[in-house]
Structure formats: C-alpha cells, structure tokens
Amino acid sequence: MESRAPQAKTRRVLVVWCPDWPAVAAAAEAGVEVTRAVAVFAANRVVACTAVARAEGIRRGLRKREAQGRCPDVLVAQDDSDRDARLFEPVVAAVDATVPGVEVLRPGMLALSARGAARFFGSEAAAAERLVDAVAAVGVECQIGIADELSTAVFAARRATLVPPGLGAEFLAPMPISELAVEPVLAAPQRVELVDLLHRLGLRRIGDFAALTPAEVSSRFGADAIVAHRCARAVPERPPAARLPAADLTVEHRCDPPIERVDMAAFAGRMLAAELHTRLASAAVACTRLIIHAETEAGEQLSRTWRCAEPLTPDSTADRIRWQLDGWLTRRSLDRGRAQEDWDAGPDAAITLLRLEPVEVVAAGALQLGLWGGVGEDEERARRALIRVQSLLGGDAVRVGVLSGGRGPEERITMVTLGDEPVPAADPAQPWPGRLPEPAPALVLTHRPRVRLAAADGSPVWVTDRGLFTADPAHLHWGSSSWRLTGWAGPWPVDDHWWTHRVEDGFAARAQVQLDAEGTTRLRALLLLGYNHAWHVEGLYE
C-alpha cells in the first residue's frame, strides 16, 4: 500500500472550474445575460451549453436543428477557442490577485497550490469561499475543488467538493468509469476507446478499475491506461520535476516594433514556439508546463503559467501564446458595465519582449507523438515542405480537402488553402436527400472522361423517361479498353446543379457499375454521370 499521509501534508491542489465556459464566453461576447439559453456548436453539433439551455432539453451532441426545435430562443454561437481564452484572462487575473501562482489548465479551468492559500485565509474552506467571491466580482460563477492530486482536484471541482487528505481514491471509487474520459485536461482523445473497453470488460466504476494491480494494467493495456489507472488510484500521474530545466531551453524575442495587435502577437508567438521546440528537441525533452512572460513599454512584467496533461507540440504552444497575448492586449471584463482599462487604446499596452520558459519537462523518447496521434516528425516535415511550396508558388498552390455538404462526390469536397480555417462550403451534417449512397468514390475525376455503356447486343444504354436503363448494361468501353460488367446500380436522376454539367437536354443521371477487372489492382468499380446522351466517369472505386 502506498502511504499518502506524508503527501497530504505537502501536496494539496486547488482547482477553479467555470462551468460551461464556452457558452458563458459566447454570451459575454454577444452582450447577453447568462440567464438566457446559449449553445455553442462545432460541426453543427452542441459542444457546450448553459444550465438554462439544459433545462430546455439541449444536450451535448445534439444537432443544431434539434436544439433549436427544443428551445427556439436559444442563442447560437460557434466554437471559438480564441474567444474562450481571451475572455478567461480577467478570471485568471482575479484569482491570481487573490492567490498568486496560478496555472491555467485550459480556458475555463485553472489550478494552484492549496497549501499557501489555506495558511493565509485560515483554512481550505475559507480560501475556497474567497476565490469564489473573487471570480464572482468579474461576473462569473465558479466551483472549487481541493484534493491531494491534480486529477482528483479536477474531479472535485466538477462536483464542488473539498476532498479530505488521503481520501482521494475513496472519493473517486463510486464514479462511473466514463468520467475518466470527460475532462480534456486529464485525458487524451483516445481515452474514450479505453473507457469503452473497460466498460465492456465489466469495470463499470472507477473503483473497479483502481482495484486492478499496476502489473495487470501495464501487461494488458497501453500507456494511456497506466496514466488512467494512476488517476483512478489518486496517485501522481507523473513524478514532479526533480529540478528546473536547463536555462538554455528558455527562448525570448525582442519585439521591434512593439506588439500592439493580436495578429502581430500570433506571428511572433508562432516563431517563438518553433524556436522553443527546436531547443527542446535538441535536448531530447518535451514541455508539459510553460511560463509565458511579457514586458510592456511601460515596464510592466506579465507572466502566466500553462500546464498540460500531454506534452506541448509546436502548434499547441503557439495557440497558448496567442491566447495569452490576446487576453493581455484586450483585457476585457466579462461584466460589460464594469469600468476597466482598455489596453487597446494606449501605447502602454504594446509588448516589447516575449519569453518562454519551460518549467517542467519529460523525456521526449517516451512520448511517441506520431504513434499516438500527435504531431509526429514526419507530419511536421511534410508541413514544412508544403509551406515552402506555398512560399515559392503562392498560398493557393497548396490546398487541402474539407468534407462539405452536397449530393454528388465533387460537391462534398471543399478545397481550402493550407493554413486557412477549414470551413466547408455547405454543412455536411444536413440531411441532403438524394445524396449518393455510401461508399464514396476513392478518386473523383474533375475532367470526367467519356465512356460508352453497352448492352449485351452492343447497343448503347441510356436512361428512359421513367428513370430506368433502356437495357441491362453488360459492357463498358473506355477508349481502347473494354470490360464486362459483373454488377450495376442505378440509375439515379440528378435534378440539382444541372448547369454545372453543361446539360443541353435538361437531364442527368448517375449510375454505379462493377467491372470484371481480373489482373488489375485498382480499377474495380466506376461512378458514372450521364448527360447529353453520353456517360462520363465521375469517380473510381478501389
């Protein structure tokens, strides 16, 4: 048995959680009260909503139309991580002014040491009450959780509980096993698969999982299961850093001219993030806790600590720099009626120096970012190569496909310039009646080569006025090649976007044909688009 009594005297973590923060931030930006139903959507599904919206039946995962059907007055907002981080800065500043040493876990949640706060205010309960009042002063509601370990304190904050020292495992034991994958600051996206597996194995509670021995978990599951098991047992997920990282890992940038706008801050932050991760890679380490430091023209020193469950990547580091600088440069209060200094208005808001200081690092060799879905070396190398191509040939020279809404395969692909926001031309979550059935073609041909579809007697096959083939198709001729058909489906009339096919007779149809293509490895089936009494290849199935 592991003794937690010594830990309880030296390690107590306090977590401040602002429930439904994306919805609260969206309401603040729109200038409406949080007493109104607010729902935040990503990919046309609810990702966050206020308590008022939940009372009306709105839940996470609902489609936009269904959510509006349950509550017609709901305020619809799009998911925006920049907005969430920018508007969370006044909350962080209020907590930091009450108890210094704040670490931001994500927009809407922060952590700090409970030991000093309890000593200053007399008890942990008194410290929690004072922090709730400090956050309420900026117009935000919050919940406080205190426990021996960070992960336990996060669960405690979601339940507004102060867990007594040494009782973290008992507090977690009755919770459903699905709770291990709820909070993103504690769990990677693949944690959902682990939780589903544990549930199917009969481990329905966190206590059931914690009852397994570390040897049983490590021999049967992956690395993430070991982390989740330590979380379930309320022991440290990773040992604390024995010493501070070497000083040569710190990077800084003198801003000339000074940074006054968010776009300038984003550019400088991405450049500084790339330099930091170059040094981290040279030292074979990765950063899990980072201090962002800034100096202004007025000589003011600003700093904020960000802690992450998983090691930071260059992109995630650049995002946190942009969020933090955006919050410092705007410094807007959630309470619209509260007078506050406008940092955008005066030259004193300009930032003259940026510094990144990693304060907690782990060995890079154990991360395996490429294997577990992170930003691996090959992906980074490919991205740099594509950016180089853009610099030589222009931004539109490199484009990526984004799933879009539509009925045909070409309509369902929106090409977006690399680096731009991947916004589809149409919502793919809409019903789209008449859409081409699954599976989709592996390759879509934009030039649409012409082919000939023939019956068994060699006569051409077309579509009747009733939407049927004039004869059963038996052969397909493509240039000098021909194949016998082993199957076909359709035809399906196409009544929309007929002008894109240069239709002269006002009729178009699609059909799928399966080829007797023995000896070929790729060509198995074709998607045909017929118009002007001729068939054209629109897509290839492999």
UniProtKB/TrEMBL annotation:
The cross-references to SUPFAM superfamilies, in alphabetical order and at most eight, read:
DNA/RNA polymerases
> Where is each UmuC domain found?
36-154
Alphabetical GO biological process terms: DNA repair
**UniProt keyword list:** DNA damage
Q: Which spans of this chain does the record mark as coiled coil?
A: none
Query: Per the similarity annotation, which family is this?
Result: Belongs to the DNA polymerase type-Y family.
Could you tell me what this protein does?
A: Poorly processive, error-prone DNA polymerase involved in untargeted mutagenesis. Copies undamaged DNA at stalled replication forks, which arise in vivo from mismatched or misaligned primer ends. These misaligned primers can be extended by PolIV. Exhibits no 3'-5' exonuclease (proofreading) activity. May be involved in translesional synthesis, in conjunction with the beta clamp from PolIII.
Q: What is this protein called?
A: DNA polymerase Y family protein
